[in-house]
Amino acid sequence: MITTDRMAAVDANAAALGVPRKQLMESSGNAVAREVRAVAEPGAAVALVCGRGNNGGDALVAARFLDEYDVAVHLLGRPESIRTDIARENWAALANADVPTEAVTDSRDFDPAGPDGDAPDVIVDAMLGSGVSGGLREPERTAAAAVNAVDATVIAVDVPSGVDADTGEPTGDSGSTTVRADRVVTFHDEKPGLAALDADVAVADIGIPAAAERYTGPGDILGLDRDPESHKGDNGEVLVVGGGPYTGAPTLSALAALRAGADLVRVACPESVAGAVQGFSPNLIVRALPGDRVGPAHVERVASLAAGADAVVLGPGLGDGDGTREFVGEFLTEYGGRAVVDADALRVVPEVDTDAELVCTPHQGELVGMGGETAADPDERAELVRGFAADLGHTLLVKGAVDVVADGDDVRLNRTGNPGMTVGGTGDVLAGTVGALAAVTDPFRAAAVGAYVVGRAGDAAADANGAGLVATDLPDRLPEATRDE
Ligand SMILES: NC(=O)C1=CN([C@@H]2O[C@H](COP(=O)(O)OP(=O)(O)OC[C@H]3O[C@@H](n4cnc5c(N)ncnc54)[C@H](O)[C@@H]3O)[C@@H](O)[C@H]2O)[C@H](O)CC1
Ligand SMILES: [K+]
């Protein structure tokens, strides 16, 4: 099962892995042709109704494969309005292969029966797929009604036009037109909303490599960019709780959170280091806690600060004194929001019963310290991490040459980054980055994207500084690493 957003990410990851979209479209078109052959004998009349996007492109390919049928292609719009060059190439190929085609510019002219007036045996609905937004507009709306009015077997490409593949509901309001399909041939994996439809659903493998789903890639960032209408605070407020024996760690986390997109970052730290932390950057808002270590006396104060944040980053530079461990346990017991837990705070997590949604970011040693297991083989390690995440009831991001991100259901691997990143402080940068992302997306995705972009920032830093990279090289490189390619 895959959602349309995740499908778009996997599609982009496949492209980044070098799988040409044209190849995917050829495979999709071939799958559509197979569906036609499954329902109609050679010589049957097949009308392919194509939109201007890649959904239409799939059917333009299919038309080429169906030469033993009486094929007619109806493009809804002018050929020059076809959106992508791969779909345009397929249109041109059809015209050269003397397949009857017509470009419908006025929806009132559209008749799936075509010029000879005989109703087709099969109609392929390739008007709109995952690129649909809102209820059907013209000419697709009139065309959908015309398709529904014909007594033919309707095969929908990817999803029936006008249907939201995630919900099975119309993409417009409940009364809006959708194509009623007898069969749906969807690509790569089942979509959540298709089961609700009164149609047979076939899932076609179109050659998307498993790595496009298993490993993070540029597609995982899609959709995280800011809403241009957003204003201060919408893009996340993060509270970093750390410092004590160390001052650099909470600062690195806080700077990373800002560079990863958080609007406001506050740092709750012992007053003994507050001056040093504030001194690192005027961008930070420091909330000093009495004394030189974070302890149980600070739980109420930190809990009230956390209530005003979208995500907490707990642990950088806290140290592992008894009082600090007690603080972490009591704070997490009380806190019910989202938190990234790192460094010395990690070992408390297995003992604490919390309503919070946690992302724990241990390295392999810290994972074992929490009671988890690791293995040399990446797939075995991934399965062990997934099982431990299920036991913990939280998301794990286990750092390594290949980072393993897992919650009880899903596992994703990240292979950006380089050995230069073993330098101290990069874990603090990662924790802050995941904190900023957890403020705007779900914990699993925050961990996967966080691992990916910090690794890319580390790779950019290594390009510039070789193995001499230091953690402070990373935050400023996060914006570039987080940009949609
Ligand atoms: N995901 C994959 O790996 C593959 C997907 N394929 C096929 O590509 C479509 C998605 O193609 P896309 O071009 O993104 O969008 P659509 O073709 O679905 O539609 C875009 C097209 O439609 C117009 N439009 C959008 N909303 C409406 C509306 N409400 N009313 C009218 N018109 C609308 C929009 O302006 C565009 O012009 C996917 O479904 C698969 O079939 C690849 O070919 C194979 C790999
Ligand atoms: K369709």
UniProtKB/TrEMBL annotation:
Its EC number is 4.2.1.136, 5.1.99.6. Keywords: ATP-binding, Isomerase, Kinase, Lyase, Metal-binding, Multifunctional enzyme, NAD, NADP, Nucleotide-binding, Potassium, Transferase. Pfam families: Carb_kinase, YjeF_N. CDD domains: YXKO-related. It catalyses: (6S)-NADHX + ADP = AMP + phosphate + NADH + H(+); (6R)-NADHX = (6S)-NADHX; (6R)-NADPHX = (6S)-NADPHX; (6S)-NADPHX + ADP = AMP + phosphate + NADPH + H(+). Homotetramer. This is Bifunctional NAD(P)H-hydrate repair enzyme. Residues 7-214 form the YjeF N-terminal domain. (6S)-NADPHX binds at residues 54-58, 129-135, 158, 249, 317, 363, 428. PANTHER family: ATP-DEPENDENT (S)-NAD(P)H-HYDRATE DEHYDRATASE, ATP-DEPENDENT (S)-NAD(P)H-HYDRATE DEHYDRATASE FAMILY MEMBER. AMP binds at residue 427. It comes from Halorubrum coriense DSM 10284.
